[in-house]
Amino acid sequence: MATPATAGPWSAAAQHGGPPSALAARALELHEPDPGQRLARVAVDILRPVPLGKITVRTRTVRPGRRVALLEAVLEADGQEVLHARGWRLAIPDGEVPIVAAGPAPPDIPAEHPLPAFPGGHMTGYLHNIDWRYVAGGGFDAPGPAVVWARAKIPLLPGEELTPMCRALLLADSGSGVSATLDPVKFLFINTDLTVILPRDPVGEWLLLDALSTIGEQGTGMAETALSDVYARCGTAVQTLLVAPR
After folding, report:
1. Does the structure show a pLDDT above 80 at 119?
2. CA 170 from chain center: how many Å?
3. Fewer CB atoms < 10 Å away: N or C end of the chain?
4. Is the Cβ–Cβ distance between 202 and 235 less than 8 Å?
5. Highest mean pLDDT range out of 12-16, 111-115, 116-120?
6. What is the DSSP string of 75-134?
7. Is 99 within 8 Å of 122 (Cβ atoms)?
8. Are the C-beta atoms of residues 18 and 173 closer than 8 Å to each other?
9. Where are the domains of the chain?
10. What pLDDT score does 110 carry?
């Protein structure tokens, strides 16, 4: 049952993309689990606004395999499919594999500061329940690229700790928001999808979003977000954006 804590900035009646994406990843991880594999990539398609209230999930194995397996989760609300997610589960090798790290060490986590404003947006749902610590970019109301640490203040489900992939999806869907290049009072920039690839599982509750959004003249945008934990870069997120005047 999705509560008001999941509501996104565009509407108090629709969820932010992060919580239902994380819920889908949880369903993928629980479906016919294999201790010799890890969920390495999840691609989410948001078919329509995901409402608050009762959400049902069904899962299936699309492509079983010992080395790679493709899983699918479908979320439904009010009798309609609202979100599809597919995840690749990859085998964990028996022998050692060299670590090839990307990028410099991440910056320190800044001290706590007030919730940044999202002009004209709904602020008491998802945005309020994430701890945002900006390193660069200034806030949702400061257009352009951003670097921000984030962590969830409340669990996705009562009594359950977020897994690394669930945490990544919950937070990475905000890449387009923190790196917004347009005034949200004048323009919509809604992501239709989210793909997260994790070469390794992020450690700890904090995730660094180093995000950049670009927009073409035909109203299509893209947000690219480098993901890091407190030790090093651990993944990448990409979103396709629908951009239009409000």
Report:
1. no
2. 4
3. N
4. yes
5. 12-16
6. EEETTEEEEEEEEEEEEPPSS-------SSPPPPPPPP-PPPP-TTS--SSTGGGEEEEE
7. no
8. yes
9. 4-92+109-245
10. 94
Q: Are strands 80-91 and 37-46 parallel, antiparallel or unpaired?
A: antiparallel
HSE-up of residue 212 (Cα within 13 Å, Cβ side)? 3
Closest CA to 87 of 65, 67, 66, 62: 62
Which contiguous run of DSSP H or E holds residue 177?
Answer: helix 175-178
Q: Which of 6, 36, 3 is nearest to 22 (CA)?
A: 6
Quickly count helices (H) and strands (E) in the chain.
3, 11
Q: Which residues pair with 138 in a beta bridge?
A: none
Cβ partners under 8 Å of residue 97, min gap 6: none
Q: Which CATH architecture has domain 4-92+109-245?
A: Beta Barrel (2.40)
- CA quadruple 97, 31, 161, 20: dihedral positive or negative? positive
**For residues 159 and 45, is the Cβ–Cβ distance under 8 A?**
no
Q: 87-99 burial string, b = 16+ CB within 10 Å, else e?
A: bbbeeeeeeeeee
Which pair of tokens denotes residue 147? 């670097």
Residue 30 CA to residue 6 CA, distance in Å, equals 22
* CB contact set of 64 (below 8 Å; sequence gap of 6+): none
Between CA 175 and CA 16 the distance in angstroms is: 12
Residue 182 is given by DSSP the state: S
Higher pLDDT, 124 or 121: 124
